[in-house]
Structures are given as C-alpha cells and as structure tokens.
Amino acid sequence: MSRTIKFILCLASLIIGGWGFFSHRKINRLAVFTLPAEMITFYKKNIQYIEEAAVNPDRRRYIIPEEAPRHYIDLDDYGDSAVNRLPRYWKEAVEKFGEDSLQAHGILPWNIFRVYHQLKDAFFVRDPTKILRFSADLGHYIADAHVPLHTTKNYDGQLTGQNGIHAFWESRLPELFSGDFDFFTGKAKYISNVQLAAWKIIYETHQSLDSVLLFEKQLATKWGDKKFNFETNGRQTVKVFSASYSKEYHQMLSGMVERRMRASVLMIGCIWYSAWVDAGQPDLKSLIDYKPSEEEIKMREEDLRKWKEEKKLSARPHEAQE
Fold first, then answer.
1. Measured between alpha carbons, how far is 74 from 76 in angstroms, rounded to an integer?
2. Taking the model in full, what pTM does it have?
3. Following DSSP, what letter does each residue of 22-68 receive, concatenated?
4. Each residue of 109-151: pLDDT tens digit?
C-alpha cells in the first residue's frame, strides 16, 4: 500500500470515525471498571486488548464493505419522528423497508443487538478469545450510538457548510477537555431488553443533534476563519480548530460531550454484564489463563445450537424476536 493511500485512509478515519481513536480507547477502558466482581478480574487482566481493540471496527470500515452501515443510522432519511416509527427489531424492519434500503441508511441500533448476541454466545461456550473480541466491538458500536452526528445524513456538516464538525465534536473536544471530565458512573446494571435499550440511546442521542449543529453555526459566524490555527504533530503541521474556539464551543454545549462519553461508558458495562447474565453467568476467572481446545469449543457451540433450537420451539411471541 502506498504512503498516499495510507494517508488517505488515516485522514478518512479522523473525519468520519466514531469518537476518534483516543475516545474509543478511553471509553472501552473505563467501561471495565463498571463491572461486578465476577467479571472485572477477567476484563482487567485483558484491559489492554479491550482498550486497543476498541478501534478495530473503524479499521474494518476500509476493508469490509458491509462494515460502514453498522456505525450509524440516518434517521432524517425516514422523515419526521423516524426514531419513534422505525421497527425496533431487524426482522420487522426488513419486512417493511427491505435489507438493501436499511443498509443504505445505516443499521446501528440493530447491529448493537446483533453483537450483543454474539457476545452472549461467546460467554455461553466460554471462549475467551471471542468474549474479548465481541466485547471490544460492542463497546465501539455502543459508543458510536452516543454521538449525535451518527444519527443524521448530515454527519459531517457537509449539508450546512460545517465540514469538519464530526471530528471537531467527537475527537478534538475530548482530546482537549476530557482530562477534566467526571467519569464516575457507578456500577453496571442488568438490562432486560438490549434491543429496546439500543433504540433508547439513539433517541436520546438524536435529541442533541440540533444543538451540535446550531451552536457551531452561530460560533462560526462570529469567528470566521479565525476559528482555525495550525498545530505541529510530530513532523506534520495540520490545520485544526483553535483551542480558544474549541473552548467556547465546548462551553456552549454545556457538558454535552462529557455526558455522552460518560453515558457510553456505563451503557457498555451494562450490556457486557447483561450478555454475561443471559449466558448463565459463566465463571470468567477460570478463563483468565485458560485456552480451550478447538474440539472443546466445537462441542460447546453444538450445545448452544441445540439450546437455541429448543428455545425457538418453546418461545412465546414476545421472545421470538431474539
């Protein structure tokens, strides 16, 4: 791969990636400390992986075509009050809109539910490698769902002359000010319906979108080109939103970025915990230094398949969505 292509990919991740690498890593790391005693030992032992792998879904966006729609949902493509009218479950949504259409507009809330099930299954078969991989992925998608610009087709302000606002809100502000944020969230709690919880996140996040765009528009009118300056990072000098401009925007938002980051941390812990509970609360301490054989994993996966078939046959109507 040429240096030019590498630079383009790196730049693209800064422009449209969720939260930015700095924030995703920080959010996943902090989520570990919301977990109960039965889980935290295993997660703390692997906290470096949980932190570093938090950005893997963004890296996959440039390799796997179907990855990108998992990070957002363009609610405005569905008209007014879309967040209240869209089917909550994937099967119903496909029946109403078709899978191609859904993919075209983003599938973030449904994808959170999909990866929650992958994590639950990994807990069930006690596969530490998959537990860690799906935990890191799930943390990324849940964090993305807390970013207002991940709920609109105007994701980078390109429709309102505010190009660059995406990285400004989710990368520049956290990098400048998160050192002063209060990340005490309390302990993770069990969520009985993860799919509905994912939609609740989207609803709350979307409520902040107007402020994100309006305040920056007002500020840009006041500052003009003075809102930018140049900073040197290593050997590169880059154009960025100035620290003074960033501070004023941050103050106008009244702690919004801090609230969304803190909510991300807690919700990730809650959904990790819920997947563990729903898988029967397996002993994670026994997995810290243990690697099951491929044969063992296959046997456990077969047990899981049989369990799912039995559950499907006996499921009540409201359970069939899972």
1. 6
2. 0.87
3. HHHHHHHHHHHTTS-HHHHHHHHHTHHHHHHGGGHHHHHTTT-TTTG
4. 999 999 999 999 999 999 999 999 999 999 999 999 999 999 9
